[in-house]
Amino acid sequence: MEIEIISKEFIKPSSPTPPHLKTFKLSVLDQIPNVPYGSLILFYPNLNGNNLSEALEKSVLLKKSLSKTLTQFYPLAGMIQKDYSIECNDFGASYVSALVHLSLENFLVHPDHQMMHRFLPLEPSSLDESSEFAHVTHVQVSIFKCGGIAIGACVSHKVVDASGVYTFLKGWANMTCGDKEVVYPNLGAPSLFPAKSLWLRDMSMAISQLLLKEGRCVTKRFVFSSDALATLKIEVARKGVQQPSRVEVVSALIWECAMEASKEAYGLEKPSLLTHAVNLRRKVATTLSEDILGNMVWFAGAVSPPSNEKTLHDLVKMVRESFMKISVEFVRKAQGDEGHVEMQKSLQEIWEIDSKEMGINSYNFTSWCKMSFYEIDFGWGKPIWLAGVVDEGAPVFINIVNLVDTKDGEGIEAWVNLDEEEMRILQANPKLLAYASIDPSPLIKNGNVALPIP
């Protein structure tokens, strides 16, 4: 697949940022992320026939609307500073335009994970790209020869989480349409969780070093249909877990199968840690909390010691119990004067096993479910597919499982990033294959083409 870069430029806000807003202090939670950028790709079909010139006109419109959007989201047009702040001097967002010498339909028949990074303006695993003085926002608009469009976004994870990226894209889409409500982000995260020191950054960096693995990362997409999830939830409920959620059962099943793969690959059973990023927005007592920009997440953790046989429903219970610890009360205490004490205690509970055991297998989950990415409409329809976290081929990586809604909003696509040998074993596990299909075409749903592409 040939992708031709036709232009690179910076899109500046349409109106200058007022002098009193030139420095945007980040919150203490912005010190957590251990990956440089939050990235995703939205694929839009051309439903009006083959019209490449019309798609090129859309790209021009996207630049104009992005300029207007950055006026509202002015920290995203800035540069990262050493003191964990954003210099909001309207440097602008990096904007890459590209032509794909292939039709969108041909690509979606069997998406190649090794080529996915070509739709992004940056290599997602490039650790030095979000360092001091780096631009916060990078986007790439790739136009297929059929007129279909892929919009790839890389936004610094020091500034926003996945929910924040969604708010930005929703605002950009609404601005492009012109007749939709303007999105004004809530920029109050630093006042809710002020950064009084860099203690969390230092602790997060130390934890990240424990998580890093050397080898060859392989990315596979395990797709759970709504029917498969319903069956899985019923089986878990029969064992005593009341009303298990989609995220709980999928996380527990993948964790169970990943532990088995690790044991088979290395002949040794290690303690296993599951972490899950928990969105704090609904747990914060403030208005407009859903549109808060920033890293409004904390981590739930569950540990399975070695030689401790756990059934699937046991693991589901453990996942649920870990979620319950990140309660409204915890968030309230974390915002108080002694908030750092509560945060440190929470992290120590998760990581205390590492001081007792030599080596630990960590599986790090994040969920984009119910974030409505499939509702983002720039004026030419909703996306046909959303690509999650892809670290295919990375020589140094972290075990990451990214859960994303299927297009119908009822199933889950689990983007699993693991060591090559462990993935080889995982993708053959009959427990997993009983509920999930591996890397099916996004065009296919229940054996039929999901959406015609001219």
UniProtKB/TrEMBL annotation:
UniProt key word Membrane: no
GO molecular function: acyltransferase activity
InterPro entries: CAT-like_dom_sf (IPR023213)
Pfam families reported in the protein's UniProt record: Transferase
Record key words, sorted: Acyltransferase, Transferase
PANTHER family according to UniProt: F21J9.9 (PTHR31623), VINORINE SYNTHASE-LIKE (PTHR31623:SF110)
Family label: Belongs to the plant acyltransferase family.
Protein name, as recorded: Chloramphenicol acetyltransferase-like domain-containing protein
Species per Swiss-Prot/TrEMBL record: Artemisia annua
